[in-house]
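Example 3.2
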Amino acid sequence: MPAGKDEPSIEKKERRSSMEIELRSDEEISSGLIQAVLDDTRLIGADVSIEVRGNRITLRGSVPYYWQKLVLLELANQYRGILEMDGMLEVKPPRPVEDNLLADKADRILAEDAWFEAVGIKTEAFDGTLSLSGTVDSLGDRARAERALWGLPGLLDIRNELIVLPPVVKGDLAIAEEIRKELEEEGISLERIQLNVTDRVAVLTGTVPSLALKARIGQLARRSRGAREVINKLATFEALT
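Structure, written as tokens:
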């Protein structure tokens, strides 16, 4: 019996079925993501709406801290099949922080880690956005520097402009000369300091007046992009008395 005029064709039925499955899939993703946000204690204070259409997730709203924005994006990225994501999220800190204070706090965090201090990363803040500049040895180091600053109060965004330059393999003599130059430019006398570099491992021995100077010399030595390790065996007058 021929199909009636108003009866949908098999092709139309399949298309409608596909659309219904897609719609259910969107609803499942949306409800699952909303529940994940509600259950995540890291997202307390977040005011976010979630929309899922086809292969796109749209996040709108605000969070108090920059790192919470990253948590939300991470949760959304866990869903397979999503091809696009619009992160229309604003960071609205409880208390705005002036740019100079934001940059100062970032510098303090980086200075607390000998690796960051040795690399010499520069920071600059403008309208709550922190810019990082300088060079690092790998993409992992580039990401590490950014992660260290995620929790800064008042941070709205990070512009990571660090350039990845793999370290150049240098000979032991060139490494020793580079370290001596760093110390001399800092005005540090080498009279009581011995430096030996073997197989790209630099060893510092001798005596210096204080623990602070010992630490500073170690930091300067680690700026050498050729040394794979710096061993600081310097003794101090403080320890000898």
